[in-house]
Amino acid sequence: MTASCRFTFRLMMLIFPFWLMPSLTFAAIPTLVIEGDTVKLEQFQMGYFVDSTEKMSFPEVQRQDFQPSSNSVSLGLEAKTTWAQIKLENVNSTALKLYLHDPYAYHNHILELYEVVDGKLTRQRILDMDRKETQQWMYRGSAVFDITLPPKSHKTLYIRSVSSSHQWFSLSLYDEDDSKRALLTLFTDIALLVGVLLALMVYNLLLFLSSRLREHFFYACYLVSGGFWIALTYGLLGNLFDVYGTMTLKWHLSLGAMPIFLLLFMIHIFETKKKYPIEHWALLLNISLLVANAIYGLFDIVTALSYSSTLAAIMMIISLSVTLSMLIRKHPMALFFLLGHGLFVFFSSLSVLFYKGMVEFNYINSHGVGIGIMVEALVLSLIIAYRIRMLENLKVAQVELKLLASTDSLTQLFNRRHFSNEANAILEKNQRAKEAITVTVLDIDFFKKINDAYGHGLGDKVIIRVADALRAQCRRQDIFARYGGEEFVILMPNTYLNEAYTLAERIRQELENVVIPIDQQQSVSFTVSIGIAEVDAETPDLQAAINRADKALYKAKNNGRNQSQRFSP
Predict the structure, then answer these.
(1) What pLDDT is attached to residue 20?
(2) The predicted structure's pLDDT at residue 15
(3) 127 near 144, Cβ under 8 Å?
(4) pLDDT digits (tens, 9 = 90+) for 52-86
(5) Is 487 a catalytic residue?
(6) CATH level 3 topology of 188-399
(7) How many CA atoms does the CB half-sphere of 288 hold within 13 Å?
(8) Residues 465, 450: Cα–Cα separation, whole Å
């Protein structure tokens, strides 16, 4: 409070305190004594009265006993028509102009203000959210009424709040400057919450479009419904689009859509359909109840909303039970989900108790669902990140397995099986183009003698050195592989016989100059023999071409080795 505004509690009896008098059921409502011209009253005492008949006239209400309370109250579902009473006294010698704010008026149906001086009604205003002509007192989702206090005067305010479902409101009094400041800072926290949820929604929608994993889609839908409900329930939609009253009542069904998408997210993230049938049917049963209530809400939204608290409790029990079951089964994501959903259940429980009027009116209780959605969304994003990492690790493992299945472990070249698959695919594509394709077979000369004389370790070094030469000399379009023990094969697309011979000679000449040291005194040199053959363009047959290249290889061996030979029929 920035000004010298103080509360004075005027006792009906001065001798004994009221709590010692058995005949007195209600304490007197304190009068707000206002001094100075700066007023910022956000916490004060007032009174309220619940009109259970919902039909009392104003004179009848004036005769009722009002229950003392704070200026912020939550009274539950049975107090749809509630009156608030605020007593004011201006001790200044000049008139004051104040502004009465109800920042939660957007969720009400009707809000009325009656100004009484000396028991007589001096001014009356009715704000009906379904009548556009009465919405002049609405500003950015908040009801604002101007009130004039004459100098040295008393005035009593009566505020009638008619709610469509749960009754809760908070009243504040400001001077003109503080009224403007209060309106400027409205809903900035809600806008931040909704903005974060929308950012997460876009991210998960992009993940779904790229991966086609349904859990990303259901999580994005959960974020959309949660963000929409937060914007609706906490006034951001009213602030931005001036939508209030009955027309927005059915929009609260989005609160039912949110747990539906969350449960669908659980089904896919835990893979309950395949692995956990009991948990799967429990989640489906919960979804069925929520869907049934949402459909019923299309015809009777007030009754459907009255069931929502019970359904929320059932959903919390089932979802937590399933999560605990996953944790017992040591599911890797169960702990993250339990943390996020447990926090959501905690804050939502506070909110349910708040709407039922069972806990005090404060920011955490009144915004519990929104806080719970936000916290859960952030924790569930960790699950999404963890799952993405798991999928990436799985893909890497699959690539490694595929690589192991297609490569030779010693040389890291393609093995015979993979070479055959790749070469046959190229031949099939080339069948219409009928371009020249050549196959080359390479064999290490006297390889058995090298193994026998120097051991298999040196033999492996010779094989690796041949593989290195193939990598260095072969072109980008060529496919080469270790075809057998000391035998290698090369497929050369779009290559004529003479071109293949030139490439084979480069490989052979490079290898005949290789020296592999054994120790400080000894070293080994080796040579290779190469056979080259064209693939028949009319009837491309890989094995037939390799057989012809083998014949050319035998010719090179018979002619003294360390040479390349072309096949000729």
Answers:
(1) 36
(2) 33
(3) no
(4) 999 999 999 999 999 999 999 999 888 999 999 99
(5) no
(6) Rhopdopsin 7-helix transmembrane proteins (1.20.1070)
(7) 6
(8) 14
Location of structure tokens 């080469």: 480
Contact 529, 446 (CB under 8 A): no
Read off the pLDDT of each residue in 115-126 and give the average, rounded to a whole number: 94
CB 263 within 8 A of CB 319: yes
In eight-state DSSP terms, residue 537 is S
pLDDT reported for residue 26 = 55
Q: Rounded to two decimals, what is the model's pTM?
A: 0.66
Domain ranges of the chain: 5-184, 188-399, 416-566
Tokens 């400027």 belong to residue: 184
What dotted CATH number matches 5-184? 2.60.40.2380
- Please, what's the largest Cα pairwise distance for the chain? 133
Q: What is the mean pLDDT of residues 106-124?
A: 93
Quick one: fold of 416-566? Alpha-Beta Plaits (3.30.70)
Report the percentage of the chain scoring pLDDT > 70. 95
Residue of 112, 215, 376, 486 marked catalytic: 486
- Sign, CA torsion 167/172/176/180: negative
Tens of pLDDT along 244-285? 777 787 787 777 888 899 999 999 989 999 999 999 999 999
